[in-house]
From TrEMBL:
GO terms for molecular function: 2-dehydro-3-deoxygluconokinase activity. It comes from Candidatus Desantisbacteria bacterium CG_4_10_14_0_8_um_filter_48_22. The keyword Transferase applies. Residues 2-200 form the Carbohydrate kinase PfkB domain. InterPro entries: PfkB_Carbo_kinase, PfkB_dom, Ribokinase-like. One of its GO terms (biological process) is DNA damage response. This is Carbohydrate kinase PfkB domain-containing protein. SUPFAM superfamilies: Ribokinase-like. GO terms for cellular component: cytosol. It comes from the Bacteria.
Length: 213
């Protein structure tokens, strides 16, 4: 259940359900064979994947020549770094929210947060910072991307939309600097209508938003 506040921010109530049992043995590697990207989202809602299992999955996927990307969700049980740390050496792109990244790393400043993950093996970090935009860091790139100006109504799904925009740029072989701008644009569009996906319309609309700067 999602409760939307007047400023577009949300509070969630959830029950794990089937997510609580989905684990390493449930991944069908034949199904993902030939994929360009393998993305795990909402990691902290998959408790059976915590620790070594998620590392094993990512390691095998990378051995298949597939790019690995990773998103988290809020850890309501407070395990944070302990649950996720084994995966980092096998993660190509890590896209947490700023709040989640602070809890995992124990750092508060975006550049120091990103450095924490890069030092542990992650290749690229993109921080979702909501109305403050986003921050990208690799060993060679460091950039802050301001938010695009839209009339925000409901932030539900904006983080997932951000990730989908970033991945859409990746499959088009765009440089990361352009991928994160597209991510910002798709995330911004997601906030313009009620619901998680209603505001995500087309690449054309996202590219139009990107013309703001």
């Amino acid at each position: 259940m999602v409760f939307v506040l007047p400023d577009g921010e949300r509070s969630f109530i959830h029950y794990f359900g089937a997510n609580s049992t989905f684990g390493e043995k449930d991944v069908d590697y034949n199904f993902i064979k030939g994929a360009k990207i393998f993305n795990v989202a909402g990691f902290f809602l998959l408790p059976a994947m915590e620790g070594k299992p998620i590392a094993n999955v990512f390691r095998k996927v990378k051995q298949m020549g597939i790019t690995t990307t990773f998103d988290t969700a809020w850890d309501s049980r407070g395990r944070w770094l302990k649950a996720i740390k084994h995966a980092f050496p096998y993660v190509d792109v890590f896209l947490p929210s700023l709040a989640e990244a602070k809890m995992i790393s124990g750092e508060s400043e975006p550049d120091r947060i990103c450095r924490f993950f890069l030092d542990r093996g992650v290749k690229t970090v993109g921080l979702k910072m909501g109305p403050k935009g986003s921050y990208l860091k690799t060993k060679d790139i460091k950039m802050y991307v301001p938010p695009y100006k839209v009339k925000s109504i409901d932030g539900t799904g904006a983080g997932d939309a951000f990730v989908s925009g970033f991945l859409a740029g990746m499959v088009r072989n765009w440089p990361f600097e352009k991928c994160i701008k597209l991510a910002n644009a798709v995330g911004a569009l997601a906030t313009t209508k009620v619901g998680a996906t209603s505001g995500v319309s087309s690449m054309r609309d996202a590219l139009e938003i990107m013309k703001q700067r």
